[in-house]
Amino acid sequence: MKKLLFLTLIFCIAAVCSMAQYGNLRVIVIGAHPDDCDDIAGGTAILYSKLGCQVRFVSMTNGDAGHQSMGGGVLAKRRMLEAQEAGKRFGVEYLVMDNHDGELMPTLENRLKVIREIRNWNADIVITHPTDDYHPDHRYTSILVQDASYMVIVPNVAPDTPPLKKNPVFLYPGFSSPEIAVDIDAVYDQKIYAMTAHESQFFEWIPWTEGILDQVPSGREERQKFLAKWYPPVNEPVKSCLKKWYGASKGDKVVYAETFRYAPFSRRPSDEETRKLFPMIKQ
Considering only CA atoms, which of 247, 261, 238 is closest in space to residue 184? Predict the structure, then answer.
């Protein structure tokens, strides 16, 4: 019994020390719709949260057009509630802006909103969509982040919000050309569970657009398995990137990962700094 208590104490001390060491890291993920951040970096966000880091998801639109049989304010309210529930499951803050779905534009007003969000969060890392994404809201979200990326340190732009002292690192999802790969095996099930909070999207709207609405199960566990099938195991480019960061032996065993690459306008930290920015990456 004494040995068990001692080991428990050691574990708790280690956990507290880990949170104290990494808790000053602040990450903001900026997506177009109230489920995009979850898809881009949900597993990585969980890992950050478990280390005591501060993570915020931002949706640039309220998602009021993303459904086959409902829309407007009713859908916006539903998607807001889904995002709030997902945020609880991920362990992150979730902000949904009140721009109309499908109508987002890279205006000065929206740029200033992004600048203020990044500043207010005092972000070390900003993750968003790539500019060549299929959806116009995704592309314009990416442009807004790009246009804000330098301005976040300029005092005379949005002077009502104190500027950052240095630019964050800006990242896109890695897809087929990853520069950073994060092992999410330990939190993969939690990511899928958190994403199931977006019922209107993953079990209604997207299946309807794919013509598979009749294949959506009704039970909670069955729905998690249904959604999990959308996320295949890592491919060779991702496996290669994992081996770089985790070592050949550990990297080769990873089944599920989230990948990132530096945005063209971002500063590129050294490998040593990257490991500090992604403290969950350990060989």
Answer: 238
Tens-digit pLDDT profile for residues 2-11: 554 544 444 4
Share of the chain above pLDDT 90, in %: 90
Question: Is the pTM value of this prediction over 0.70?
Answer: yes
Structure tokens at 33: 């719709």
Strand pairing of 257-262 and 169-173?
A: antiparallel
Q: Assign domain 22-277 to its CATH architecture.
A: 3-Layer(aba) Sandwich (3.40)
Secondary-structure percent of the chain, ordered helix, strand, coil, rounded to 5: 50, 10, 35
Give the pairing type, strands 54-59 and 93-96.
Answer: parallel
Q: Measure the CA–CA gap between 90 and 192, rounded to whole angstroms.
A: 10
Spatial CB neighbours of 34, under 8 Å, sequence gap ≥ 6: 59, 61, 62, 63, 79, 80, 82, 83, 94, 96, 198
Cα(230)–Cα(99) distance, integer angstroms? 28
* Spatial distance between the Cα atoms of 95 and 129, rounded to a whole number of angstroms: 17
With CA atoms as reference, report the closest residue to 196 among 174, 159, 227, 173.
227
pLDDT, tens digit, 9 for 90 and up, residues 217-270: 999 999 999 999 999 999 999 999 999 999 999 999 999 999 999 999 999 999
Detail the DSSP E strand segments found in the chain.
26-31, 54-59, 93-96, 125-128, 169-173, 180-183, 257-262
Task: Examine the pLDDT at 51 and tell me if it is beyond 50.
Answer: yes
CB 92 within 8 A of CB 56: yes
Phi, psi of 218 (to 5 degrees): -105, -30
